[in-house]
Fold:
Amino acid sequence: MAVDENAWHSVIEVGDDAIPFLDKKFDVGSISDRKAIIKALGYMRSAKGFDLIRKALNDPSDDVWKQGLDAAVSMGGRDALELIRNAIERRRSDHVFVEWSNEAAHDIENEKD
Structure:
């Protein structure tokens, strides 16, 4: 299911209506596709994408969950911070994940309005 960059730009332009499509594609996509989907969500900055970012933060691929952290930081705010903190709690035995997530949470906490 390789998708080129132009397709992702079109998805971003569609906005929130694209999220159900992205969710379905995330479930069957390759690592690179899942990463690209989450990157698109980060650009969209829609609160409706939080459930999909939550999936990314549970993904076994470092590339995907790191992109999920980037998307959460891009979205910012209390909801993104809570999303990351909940992921840390679920994955507390994964020390690399926790380290990266704590850094992302710190970035959100220190964002300037």
Observations:
- The chain is about 75% helix and 0% strand.
- The first helix runs from residue 5 to 14.
- The mean pLDDT is 89.
